[in-house]
Amino acid sequence: MKYELTDIAIVILNWNGKDLLEKFLPSVVKFSENAKIYVADNASTDDSIQFLYEHYPEINVIKNKTNGGYAKGYNDALKHTNQPLLCLLNSDIEVTENWLSPILNQYNSDENVAIVQPKILDIHNKNYFEYAGAAGGFIDKYGYPYCRGRIFNTIEEDQGQYDDVETIFWASGACFFIKNSVFNELNGFDASYFAHYEEIDLCWRAFNNNYTTKYVGTSSVYHVGGATLQNTNPKKTYLNFRNSLFTLVKNTDSNVLSRTIIRMLLDGIAALRFLVQLKPRHFVAILKAHGSFYKHLGEIVARRNQLPKRANYYNLKSVVWSYFVNRQTKF
To answer: Do both 146 and 290 map to the same domain?
Structure first.
């Protein structure tokens, strides 16, 4: 089928984010003409919903009963959409003029494309990529994610080097386009993740089901980043380390035991590094992440046994080795 702008549902997940809605909704409304805009509210206790009713009566409000985080929040909300293309958009994203057309063209040019990400730039420093997704994500043999334009905490300046269309492994949940039919086929996000890494898990499952994820560098958005959980928050460290282990065990094609052991050893080195940096709460967060992984290992293995696998998912054996030992700081 040929998709039109009216086939896109833009769904913004909100939790006590009235200030973010006030700041960033205007660009979404202005530059998303003909697309359907939804705000899915995760049981906010501020006046977000009243603000929407008063200032944006044309926006559809979906009221989730609980705050299930990013994963369950979107799983619940997207049941109320029927458009064939979904855009899961963070509430701290500023979109740009004509941002939807290149995405639409990509879907219309390749029917196997299931997931698409635009270029994500830093709203505080608009000449640089933003940490969460940059110019499209990849993953190494041990489940560590990295991006074109961002490897660990080294972020590249945007000099047009990624103004292309490229097949990637994972797309950022900050601005995540997916076919509604594929989202439902894959049973959505893994709700046990709560937040962080759920989009990588979903993209990995899409890959294992022979779907394609694309980056479209001719569409740009600007992201605040860390508006819900700052990088300095140990809970973010906990969720990232725990959920990445969940994802590796669920989805990797082979040698899962050896890869997981090596990954956990590398996590241990990261924990010690936090300790040396006098960040004991992050050290403890990694320990708790591993404890939770052991606690849920049986469930994760059971899910693994139900999912298809596909080889050659990684382009790089170890991004940790490349970055910290070989000092390779660019994609």
So the answer is: no
**38 contact partners, CB below 8 Å, separation of at least 6:** 9, 10, 11, 12, 59, 60, 61, 62, 77, 80, 81
Has residue 200 got a pLDDT over 90? yes
Q: Is the pLDDT of residue 229 over 60?
A: no
pTM, two decimal places? 0.96
Q: Are residues 208 and 243 in the same domain?
A: no
Mean of pLDDT values over 304-330: 95
